[in-house]
Amino acid sequence: MKGVIFPGNRQIEFKEFPDPTPGPGEVVLEIKASGMCGSDLKMYRNAGGPAALGFKMSGGPVIAGHEPCGVVVAVGAGVTEKQARVGQRVMQHHYRGCGVCDHCSTGWMQLCFEGVAEVYGTTGHGGHARYMKCPARTLVPLPDSLSFDTGAAISCGTGTAWGALHRLSLQGDHTIAIFGQGPVGLSATQLAASMGARVIALDVSDTRLTRAREFGATELINPTKTENVVGAIKDLTHGRGADLSLDASSSPAARQQAVQCVRTWGKACYVGEGETVTLNVSNDMLRRQVTLIGSWTFSTVGQADCARYVADRKINVDKLFTHRWKLEQAVEAYQWFDEQSDGKGVINPSN
Q1: pTM of the model
Q2: Is the same domain home to 125 and 228?
């Protein structure tokens, strides 16, 4: 089979790999949708790809794509029908830990006490190929009413937004400021609005802000056109500040504003990876009783909860995707995605 790899320097390569065969406890998926995530761009852009960023590779080039969704086509020895069956529609939780520690056994394999053995799409083969092999324990059922594209979104970006909103204990009477309206921030806007919250959406792109309005945001702020972002948020909240904030931008300035814009006893959550932030601990946090939370993706349990919520509430997650590509169009797809100016893309390797 042909797989997409990231050699770095904004290049895409296609490499031939043998079709995978499942070992004990493993399955093979036929990938129906493989989402494109903002964190992929670091490996796409960086000289040397994932290895140069410090990831411990499992040997040889690795197939990209960590938002996999598809159908089980083969199961290995010891896999019970409760775990997986041929023909089952599934999402994949894109981490593999030891499988037995406290975190792995509760679905938090990325927090494995023994250290994450693989991150699929980064240190182990991911979803940008027709087939993918993984442990059966990393599978999460995809409700029949949801598309494979929606399942791919929940497998990282939308699931990450869901996990962050739950870490914040969002309620319907809250006002939340969401910094960055890329795929994760826009998912957070869509989910928060569906839960009844008032959403203040922030982004430096007016195009993305327009989409945020379509996804349920009631107030829009472009920081490049606003002299005092924190003041603007306070003006929208009777001078008190937002109840909650979520940063999905990774911008140091936005992270600082996300803490400063919440009211006394408010909560701020960081989701965007990388970069640093400088805070005045006394004024920004201690003397206002502000809680700062870090949220790294989600558990298999959270992924399943998110999928059920989306299905039950009939939330149109497919609307996130503005571009759909075939595997052989990966070069064009990542050139478009690298601009980070519009929407989210998904690759269908089975077409």
Answers
A1: 0.95
A2: no
